[in-house]
Amino acid sequence: MKEKAVYLATGAVIAALYVVLTLVSAAFGMSSGSVQFRISEALTILPMFTPAAIPGLFVGCFIANLITPGTVIWDVFFGSIATLIGAFGTYYLGKNKWVAPLFPIAANVLIIPFVLKYAYQIDRGIGYFMLTVGAGELITCGFLGILFYQTLVKTGIANAIPSKNPRKNK
């Protein structure tokens, strides 16, 4: 029972951090549009440390997209799905800090351009959006994510992150 509570609390903290960091990015006009720079995307490295990051990132992205002004429902749905796919990829396949960011980058590059083109009806090509979304994700998930990873490891904070999945213990 205690492990489930810790798992839920860890996921909730990650979700809250994602929302707050997205809103900070939104305040500076960086969190949406064809060129996105969501500081919160650095958190997509967290599934390397705990499976609780998977629902945490998904819920955080869902809430952030839901409350960000001007976001359409398709972005709320597909943006959250892209984050979920990236989080699963990072958890299951991202055993290396250099490989782990590739999953959220790829998920966003393959999904978000279609949201921008068809849900927001921005008059640009899918290839253009793949480049711009990819550049933003490369900076936030790649550069900032790896920097965040190294900071967590070097400061010892990584050891304090609850890493158990309560479902695996049954």
Topology record:
Layout: H1 2-27, H2 53-67, H3 73-93, H4 102-119, H5 126-155, H6 157-160
Description:
The protein is globular and about 50 Å long. The chain has one domain: Arp2/3 complex 21 kDa subunit ARPC3, CATH 1.10.1760. Helix 1 runs parallel beside helix 2 (53-67), helix 2 (53-67) packs antiparallel against helix 3 (73-93) and helix 3 (73-93) runs antiparallel to helix 4 (102-119). The protein has helices at 2-27, 53-67, 73-93, 102-119, 126-155, 157-160. The chain has six helices and no strands. The protein is mainly α and 170 residues long. 43% of the residues are buried.
Q: Distance between the terminal alpha carbons, to the nearest Å?
A: 11 Å
Q: What gross morphology would you assign?
A: globular
Tell me the CATH topology. Answer: Arp2/3 complex 21 kDa subunit ARPC3
- In the CATH hierarchy, the architecture is Orthogonal Bundle
Number of strand elements: 0
Low-confidence stretches: none
Overall pLDDT:
92
